[in-house]
Amino acid sequence: MTAMTVPALRAATPAEGGRRTLPISAVDRLAAGAHVLGVMGPLVLPPRAALVAALHRVVSLGPGARLGLVAADRRDWAWTPETQRELCERMVSEIPPLGDDLAPDEVLEHLVGMIDDALPLQVIVSGERLLMIYDHQVVDARFTSRLPAALLDLAAGGEMPAWLSAEGVRHPLWRAVAATYLRHPARVPALLRARRVQVPTVPTGVVQEREQVAWAPSTAVAWGRGDRRTFTELRRWLRAQPHPVAFSSAVIVALRAAFVREGVRLAAESELVWDVRQYLPAGVDTTGNFVTGVPVTGVDDLLAVDESIHETVTSGRPLAALVAGAVKEAVRPGDRRVPATAPAHARGHLVVSNLGVARTMQGLPWVRDGRAAELGYTVHPVPAENLSVQIAVIDGALQVAVAYNDNVFDRGVVDRALARFVADPLSLIDGAPGS
Predict the structure, then answer these.
(1) Which of 89, 166, 197, 342 has the fewest Cβ atoms nearer than 10 Å?
(2) 277-290 pLDDT, tens per residue?
(3) 8 Å CB contact between 79 and 19
(4) Residue 60: which domain range?
(5) What is the mean pLDDT of residues 73-86?
(6) What's 371's domain CATH number?
């Protein structure tokens, strides 16, 4: 097998002035060039100086805490203890309130223009809103969903959370492979079955050429919030089925129906972002990137979609996909240049990242004065045909953000599709009440 760097921060290479370099893992490099953006509020927020001090405590833990890592080049991180305080000062800023009349989607679009590629993290205080910008090469979704609560607690004098201070494991990817396949070889046939194409989009042997047009990224965001009743009804209906259906399966089917009803052409296959940490041995964890996207077949059939996800996950296919991506990146690093063309007639590719009931976010110090808690996460940039959906449940209600390119999909169409989904997702599922 070709030698490669996998997601573990190996012993650092000393450099002048205390600066150390560490190899960027192949898994981390798969996310190079992408950023995760977040907005949450209204919150009771500490002064900027307290946040700087809290962030410095985290960075001082070492490279395993990730937030002091700065890309020196395409292959190596730089970690410089002497400049960490100055780095933290740059990573935390305060701007005037953006205004209560500015919705979370507008705030997220505003954050696109504030991205500083030289920083692994940006924490921005804006009135009662906390805004976050993460370099996706540094951290993944689980980290981004847990850090706000950790920083605010540390700023209030709290203890360092165990997940940040725990010593990282070397080579977590191969630890997961050993735990999943070497100790359970029966999973290999299941993996091969899961790789079969269940819903072919083109007959075998037919090459489909699609007309291309000049294109440049133009990230736009739609955001919507449901209510407790519709979320409760959806959960109750799913649990009452003869064969319980996963929440993510219902979300994918309902979202697809919402977009189709607004006239959006969709690709037959959807995608679900999956946390691969579940394949690690018990007690083993990693703070680096460890998620991947897995294909979801079944189109709009709820049971077929659910079976597709179930078979994919139980076979360990998300782990196999992450390994394949890492090997490919290690042997032949990917081209990170943005394509200059896109299909003339878009087929929306639905990509869903589902945080579910976000307990760490629920525990944030929300202002409870009658205003609704608002939470939105999104990604930038977005591939031309992607409809990238981030879902969380706060106060028992769905909060959903959709990132897309507004030079590919019409803003009004995306807004209406999302509004249709958050208003009553259950009515969008064939066979469910109200459908």
Answers:
(1) 197
(2) 999 998 888 999 99
(3) yes
(4) 21-158
(5) 95
(6) 3.30.559.10
